[in-house]
Amino acid sequence: MSTEEKQQRIVDAVLVLIAKYGAQGTTTARIAAAVGVSEPTIYRIFRDRRAMLLAAADKVWLQRRDELEAFESSDAMDYLRKVSDSHTAGIQTTDVSYYLHELVVAPPTDGLRGHLREHMINEAEHLAGILDEGKAQGCVRQDIDSEEHAWRIMSVYWLEAMARLYGLEDVLLTGFSTRLFGTIIDGIAVRDE
What we know:
Elements: H1 3-21, H2 28-35, H3 39-45, H4 49-68, H5 76-91, H6 96-104, H7 112-137, H8 146-165, H9 169-172, H10 176-188
Helix pairs in contact: 1-2, 1-4, 4-6, 4-7, 5-7, 5-8, 5-10, 6-8, 7-8, 8-10
């Protein structure tokens, strides 16, 4: 088995354990037992528990981003509409919110909050880049602040994630968040005169 395959087995075990015990209860002893190896063996693959948790956070984040963007779009506005629909639909079927919540509330010594912060900043920068592309394409208003509107979109992502986490899907994901996304997206669209 390659090092990459071993890393993947460990990361998969970490995610199973986070779902069962939370990040704090995901100990190296439990990880090793879940993988079927000794603790010293997992330390040959990852330098420490934090590295395992960071790899799990990266996997969840990247998997969700891939799911979000599994579509073709004709321009930036089409992309924004599709990504908002994708987020609303996907958040109801994925456990990403649970994993990210567990990772962000892990003890500060685990260093996960800062790592996830960087992922969120990168995601907002990605969205701001899409908005800038839309300005160049002529479908997004030139006068909007791309960074601010990227964070507005991110705030709806968070609302939907919290709705899922707190069992409020029937209240917030049945139209409210879609209308909120729509208000943001319609507000930045170039209007035909």
